[in-house]
Amino acid sequence: MRWSDAVTxxxxxxxxxxxxxxxxxxxxxxxxxxxxxxxxxxxAADTKVLDRLGQGNPLTTVRVAPAQPRPGQLDSxxxxxxxxxxxxxAALASIRRAPHVxxxxxxxxxxxxxxxxxxxxxxxxxxxxxxxxxxxxxxxLLAGRWPAANSLTExxxxxxxxxxxxxxxxxxxxxxxxxxxxxxxxxxxxxxGPGQGRSYRAVIVGVVGQDLTDGDFIVPVPQVVQxxxxxxxxAGSTQFPVNGSPYAGAVVVASSLSDVHTxxxxxxxxxxxxxxxxxxxASVQEYLGVVNVVLGSIGSVALGVALLSxxxxxxxxxxxxxxxxxxxxAIGGRDRDxxxxxxxxxxxxxxxxxxxGAVAGVVIAxxxxxxxxxxxxxxxxxxxxxxxxxxVIPLLGWLGTGLLAVxxxxxxxxxxxxxxxxxxxxxx
Amino acid sequence: MSVNRARPWGGQxxxxxxxxxxxxxxxxxxxxxxxxxxxxxxxALMGASGAGKSTALALIGGLERAQRGEVVVGGQDLDxxxxxxxxxxxxxxxGFVFQHFGLLETLTAQENVELAMALDGVGRExxxxxxxxxxxxxxxxxxxSHRPSALSGGERQRVAIAxxxxxxxxxxxxxxxxxNLDAAAAGHVLDMLDELRSEHGCSLLVVTHNPVxxxxxxxxCELVDGKLRVP
Lengths: 428, 231
What we know:
The structure holds two protein chains of two kinds. Chain A has helices at 3-16, 18-53, 89-97, 159-164, 221-231, 260-270, 278-320, 322-330, 335-378, 392-408, 410-417, and strands spanning 61-65, 67-69, 81-84, 101-115, 121-129, 139-144, 154-158, 179-186, 196-210, 217-220, 249-254, 273-275. By secondary structure, chain A is α+β, with helices and mostly antiparallel strands. The model of chain A has no long low-confidence stretch (mean pLDDT 85). In chain A, the strands form two sheets. In chain A, strands 4-5-10-7-9-8 form a six-stranded mixed β-barrel. Chain A has a two-stranded antiparallel ribbon with strand order 2-3. Chain A folds into two domains: 3-54 and 282-425, no CATH class; 61-276, no CATH class. Chain B folds into two domains: 1-93 and 169-231, Rossmann fold, CATH 3.40.50; 104-168, no CATH class. Chain B is 34% helix and 27% strand. In chain B, strands 6-7-8-3-9-10 form a six-stranded mixed beta sheet, with helices on both faces. In chain B, helix 3 crosses helix 4 and helix 5 packs parallel to helix 6. The interface between A and B is medium-sized, with 28 and 34 residues.
C-alpha cells in the first residue's frame, strides 16, 4: 500500500468518529499550545533579560583597560586595574590573534578644552572610535545620527555634555546642530603658561548614552588622532599631562558567551585589566535555566497527557476496527500496511493538533507578553517587550508534536499490525 | 484419526487438503480433513454451526495455519508461507467474500474495490479503470461513489464480489455469502458469483448451511464433527 493510500485510509478513519477525533486533537492542541507558549515566553524573556544585562551590547563583550590587572581580576566582573600598562598597536594585534576573539575595537581619547559661546573654558575629553563598529560598543544613540566615519567636523555629544548645555536629559534632540569649539593643548617643556592650542569647530549631529569611559564627545578616529598628535608635540604639564598609552582602552568581542572567560584569562595573561558581566550573566542564566526547566516540565506533562490521549484514541479505534483490520489482511494487506495506516492516523492528529497548538501558543505568548509589559510599565519597572516570536519555536512545536504523536501511536499501531487475519471471519 | 475424502475430481486440484486437524483449546474442529477442489470447480461446503466450515475456509484462505496436515492451494504449501509471502498469497491467489461483506465503511464502493489492488501496488489509473469494469460487471457502476452504508445488503455483497475478483484470483472463498440477504438478493448474488466465476475462470468454494445455496454448486459436501461427509 502506498503512503497516499494510507493517508486516505487514515483520514477517513479519523473522520469516522469526528467527535472523538476532535477531542483528541483538542487535547493535543492544548498540550502543544501550552508548551509552545511557554517556550516562546521563556526564550523571549531570556533574550530580553540577557540583552538588558548587556545594556544593548553583545554579552560577549570584554572591555580592556590600559592597566595591569590585580590578582583577583578574573574572579570579578568589574575592572580591577593596577599599575598603568600601555595598550599599543602591538598589544592590540596580539589580542586579535588570541583564540576565541572575533573583533577588537580600540578606543582613543584626547584631552580638549572647550570654549563656550559665552567665552567660558571647560576641560573635556573626546573619545575616538571606529564609527563603523559602534554597534559593538556600549554606546546607544539617543537622538540624531552617528558622525561620519572620517569627519573632522562632526561629533556626538554624550549625556554628560547635555548637562553643560543645561538641556534636559529627556530632550536630547535640543542639542542637535549645536556648534562647539574644541581646543587641543600643547605644553612645551618648561612652559609654565597656558601653552599653545589647536582649535577646530564641530557640530553636534547626535546624542549618545555611553559607558566606555569619561568623556563629552564621541568622535571619529581622525579627530582624536590629530588632537593627540598635536598634544604629544609638547611635553605636557601637571595640569595637562600627555597621555602615555596610545589607546585608552579596547572592546574585545569573544566568539561566544562560553568563551568570554577564556578571552579574559588570555588578556589577564597579557597583563591587562578587563571587565565583563560574565559572572552576572552566568548567575542569571542559572536562574533562567531553573525557570525554563520548571515551565518546560509543566508543558511537557500537558503534552504527555495529550499524547496519551492519542494512544488511547488509537486503541479505541483499533478495537472498533478489528474486523476492518482482519479484512484488510484477508485481502492481502501486510503487517506494515496496517502499521502505516495507524501511524499515519496518529501523525495526522499530531500534526493537526500541533499546528493548532503552534498558532494558539504564539497567540497566548503574545498576550502574556503584552500583559507582562503593561504590568512592568505600570509599576515603573521599565518596558520589557516580549513580543517577537522566533519562528523556529512554533515550527519545532508543530513538527515535534507530529513526531511525538507517531511515537505515542507506535505501540497501538504495532498491536493493530499484529492482529491476526482471522479477525476478518470472527463473529462481531 | 479418521480420513474423509471428497468425491474424486478430474484434473489437478486447485485446493488440496490432506489430514488437516485443527482444534481450539480442547475442542476439535477439524479432524483429519481431506478435500480436493479442481480448477474451475464450484464446491459448497455445508455444515451446522460449529462444524468447522469457517475454520476450513480460514485455513484455505491463509487466515490461520493448520495445526496438523497439509494445505496446498494453487500448488503452494501454506505451511511454508509466512509474513509477506502469505499476504501475497492472500492477495493474488484468493478472493474473499464474507457474510458480513467486509467492506470498509469509510471508503466508497469504488475505493473498496480499488483497495485490494492498492495493496498489490497497482497504479492509480489502472486500478481505477479495473474497479469501474468490475463494478459494471456486478451492475453497480452507477453506485460506485456510494459508501457501503448507502447500499442495500445485496449491493454490498456485489461490491464485495467485485473486490474479490480485483486481483484476478484463482480461487474465491465465500463464507455464507447470502447469510445476511433476503431470498431475492441472495439469488441475485449467487447468480452473479456463478456467472463471474465462469467468466474469470476461477474456482469457487462456498461455505453455507443453506441447502438452497449448496444446490447451485457443482458438488457439495458436509462437515460433521470435523469430518467430511459426501452426500
